[in-house]
Amino acid sequence: MLWLTFTEEVVRYYAPVTMGRRVIGDTEIQSCPVRAGEQVLVTFPAANHDLLAFDDPHEFRIDRAENRHVAFGLGVHRCLGSNLARLEMHIAFHEWVRAFPNF
Ligand code: HEM
Fold first, then answer.
1. DSSP-based helix, strand, coil % in the chain, nearest 5
2. Cα of 101 to ligand 1 centre, how many Å?
3. Ligand 1 pocket: which residues have CB below 6 Å?
4. DSSP letter, residue 44
5. Which atom of ligand 1 is least distant from the CA of 74?
6. Residues 75-99: tens digit of each pLDDT
7. Where are the domains positioned within the chain?
8. Tens digit of each residue's pLDDT (9 = 90 or more) over 28-79
9. pTM (global) more than 0.85
10. Which residue, judged by its Cα, is nearest atom 7 of ligand 1?
11. Those residues with Cβ within 8 angstroms of residue 6's Cβ, 6 or more apart along the chain or in another chain
């Protein structure tokens, strides 16, 4: 069980992917005006450290039970390979600990 929460916490904490978007219409994001044609950075790592969304977000907890992170994105472009990535990380972390048992 700890392996699963650990893997999820690794992707929440380090969220290695940040995406950009081109704005298609004038609007506001949290009172900040954005105009058509501009670019915005979708900082998934920052969202994963949001104090309003997580308890002690800057703390790495291997047993974090509730972990609704956005490291794999959101909406229609959400990562297609997220479950493969989870499986690969699971295997890689197991192999790491097997190779370095005192880590
Ligand atoms: C830890 C590993 C990974 C992370 C953190 C990650 C993260 C992401 C994120 C944040 C997006 C959304 C991009 C957006 O909003 O435009 C995305 C999209 C995507 N990912 Fe991953 N990814 C991972 C591994 C993988 C793997 C292993 C595959 C496939 C073998 C994969 C395939 C894709 C594809 C095809 C999309 C595009 C989906 C779309 O635009 O409809 N990813 N990924």
1. 35, 15, 50
2. 31
3. 11, 16-17, 19, 44, 71-73, 77, 79-81, 84-85
4. H
5. 15
6. 999 999 999 999 999 999 999 999 9
7. 2-99
8. 998 999 999 999 999 999 999 999 999 999 999 999 999 999 999 999 999 9
9. yes
10. 72
11. 62, 63, 93
